[in-house]
Amino acid sequence: MKAIQYRSVGAAPEVVRIPKPLPGPGQVLLRVTAAGVCHSDFLIMGVPAEQLSFPLPLTLGHEGVGVVAELGDGVTTVAVGDAVAVYGPWGCGRCTECAAGKENYCLRARDLGIYPPGLGAPGAIAEYLLVDDPRHLVPLGDLDPVQAVPLTDAGLTPYHAIKRSLPKLVPGSTAVVIGAGGLGHVAIQILRALTPARVIALDVSDEKLELAREVGAHETVRSDAAAAQRVRELTGGAGAEAIFDFVGAPPTVTTAGACARVESDVTIVGIGGGALPVGFGALPHEVSVTAPYWGSRTELIEVLDLARAGVISVHTETYPIDDAPIAYQHLHDGKVRGRAVILPNS
Ligand code: NAD
Ligand code: ZN
Ligand code: ZN
After folding, report:
1. Which of 54, 115, 127, 251 could form a disulfide with 1 if both were Cys (CB 3.0 to 4.6 A apart)?
2. Among 186, 230, 269, which residue has the most ligand 1 atoms within 8 Å of its CB, making it the best to mutate?
């Protein structure tokens, strides 16, 4: 089968032919209908050889949807032909976090060497994906695979982040979204669907600010050193109740902190190496700063239900598998509007 692999440290992703996997006992083989390309893959591809905790080559892709193609021995909860979305943050399935559906916070995954597909285990940008357990599969129903696949990360991650802050996003409140890319443009829509908050989007690109307005941002602000001041003006000097930073770089976390109102939430989702000091006087009183990771299986079910309700429309650019390296290049260059989605079987 064809797959997109990161084969050696520093190399660009490439199209390769590898054997089609066989499902072992308890496993499920999916024929992948769509796979998303996330900015986090560049993080994996930036890790120096001595710090890599899994072997290369790695088949990329941690957003996947597909159709069940083959069942390993003993699998009874899904059937061949079922359309499913893959819940990506695999855990041990047994610890207290996993028992609550929060495998993204599994207490034992690291010790047991369990990795999400595309982030250590073979990923979804391939004709077939081996899924370790049917519990990782959520029914897709009649959702369109291309629309649905980004929801497994670019939808789930902002959904989890926003859900924590819902009590603060009351009428009259303001939410700030920094970075209107794959995750950010979905975040804006989730905020509009779930809250009455006014949404202010920040980005460095005019095209992304235009997309932000198109998907529901009330205001857009160029992300520069003056952006926080502009957010303060737009909030009558008070600042925003919730700030979601989908860049997470040193200048954006600084902006995020400078937009914060007293008792607000600053959520750093982007993995850009920034950190925000917390301590008396460092930020307005009682600001909570957090850096979440992905979301729970229950939340993935909720995000898919939100899409079924017709209130999220992911902007996608599709590529055949042979062009996946180009999709990575476009994402790297900031040229993707919304999410790049690979179609491995078309
Ligand atoms: P993306 O490339 O699609 O979007 C990034 C957006 O940020 C682009 O629109 C870009 O123009 C904008 N941007 C860049 N620099 C900016 C700045 N200084 N100010 C404002 N906007 C700026 O990336 P993505 O796939 O949406 O991922 C976003 C981030 O979230 C990445 O860092 C990724 O690694 C991270 N991520 C984290 C989690 C998690 O669980 N914490 C999950 C998925 C992705
Ligand atoms: Zn991701
Ligand atoms: Zn666990």
Report:
1. 127
2. 269
Distances (CA, A) of 205 to 62, 154, 219, 232: 26, 19, 15, 21
Joined together, the tokens standing for residue 82 give 């079922």
Task: Indicate if ligand 1 lies below 6 Å from the C-beta of 155.
Answer: no
Task: Tell whether the model's pLDDT for residue 277 goes beyond 90.
Answer: yes
Domain around 219: 156-290
Global pTM? 0.98
Give the closest ligand to the alpha carbon of residue 44: 1
Shared-domain flag, residues 76 and 107: yes
Same-domain pairing of 301 and 273 = no
Distance 124 CA to ligand 2 centre (A): 12
Instruction: State which amino acid sits at residue 129.
Output: L
Both tokens of 242, joined, read 């919730």
What are the CA-CA distances from residue 28 to residues 24, 82, 135, 263, 304 (Å)? 8, 11, 10, 46, 21
For 252-273, how does the pLDDT look when each residue is reduced to its tens digit (9 = 90+)? 999 999 999 999 999 999 999 9
Give residue-wise pLDDT tens across range 67-85. 999 999 999 999 999 999 9
Cβ 197 vs Cβ 169: under 8 Å:
yes
346 pLDDT more than 90? no
142 CA from centroid of ligand 1 (Å): 29
What is the C-alpha to C-alpha distance for residues 141 and 304, in angstroms, rounded to an integer? 10
User: Final residue of a domain: which of 270, 290, 310?
Assistant: 290
Q: 337 CB under 6 A from ligand 1?
A: no
Name the burial class of residue 69, with classes exposed (0-12), middle (13-18) and buried (19+) by CB atoms within 10 angstroms of its CB.
middle
Q: Are residues 302 and 187 in the same domain?
A: no
Tell me the CA–centroid distance for residue 183 and ligand 1, in Å: 7
Domain of 196: which CATH number? 3.40.50.720
Last residue of a domain, one of 252, 273, 290: 290
